[in-house]
Every structure is written in C-alpha cells, then in structure tokens.
Amino acid sequence: MNSVACHRWRVCLENIVTGGRSVLVLEDEPIIALDLEEVLGEAGYDDVQVFSSCADASAWLEANTPRVGILDPRLRDGVCTSIAQTLLQRSVPFVVYSGQAPDLTEDAANVFSKGTFLSKPCHPDQLLKAIATKARRTG
Asked: Using one digit for the tens of pLDDT, what is the confidence trace for 58-110?
C-alpha cells in the first residue's frame, strides 16, 4: 500500500473509531462540491453538509454545529464572513479553500486568517490532513 493510501486509511480509521465527524462545506462550484463530498465520505466523514450560499449555511447553523468547516469565502450570495465568525464563536476550526486569495475587507480578512488557507486545487490528502490537524487541535 502506498503512502497516499496509508494516510487515507489512517484518517478514515480515526474517524470511524471516534464516531465520525460532521463537516460543513461552503462551495458554490458544483463539481468541486461533489468532489469534496466524495473525498470526505471516502475518508470516513459520515456527515457532510454542503451549501452554496451563506443564507442556507446560516439557516443550518441555527440548529447544528459541525466538527470542522471547509469554506470558500466567496459564495453565490456574497462573502461568508458571518459563517466564519459563527464557527469561530463556537470554536469550530475551518479551512479556507479558495482558488485565489480573496479580496476582503480588513475585518473579513482578520476572520478568515483564523483558518488554514489551502489553494484550489490541492491534493485530497493535503485537504484531509489540514482538516484532521485542525480538528485535533480543538478536540
């Protein structure tokens, strides 16, 4: 088994042993959203909630708190600063997953700087490692 497969299995087993993990994904590109959902599912994340708008994610957060978030800062209805702020208030770690460094206000940049930035596209194992690392730090 190669090192990539070993890492995926290790992450998957970690999630299975600990009862799985919920992940909030904010992504407005359908192909990228499907890819993230598949990668996370294969790694054992059993509750992946994908939203393409700030409004839908905000409504979900009214009754739910994920273990970790993957956020594209710019969604179809604007910059998701309020979602990132909600996650920070609840001590939920997040990864900022964007194709480019977003042009943000100073306040928004400060909020998103609390996450780990990963540039699209990145290798699935890089993403899995980033979210596992963030989740362990707060777990």
From this structure: 999 999 999 999 999 888 888 888 999 999 999 999 998 887 665 666 777 77
Write out the two tokens for 45: 């994340």
Residue 68 C-beta-side C-alpha neighbours within 13 Å: 26
Which pTM was predicted?
A: 0.80
Q: What amino acid occupies position 52?
A: S
At residue 52's C-alpha, the angle toward residues 46 and 57, to 5°, is: 70
Residue 61 DSSP one-character state: H
Q: What angle do CA 116, 37, 132 make, to 5 degrees?
A: 40
Which two structure tokens, joined as six digits, stand for 58? 């905000």
Q: 98: burial class by Cβ within 10 Å (0-12, 13-18, 19+)?
A: middle
DSSP 3-state of 92 = coil
Give the CA-trace dihedral at 83, 89, 90, 92, to 10 degrees: 60
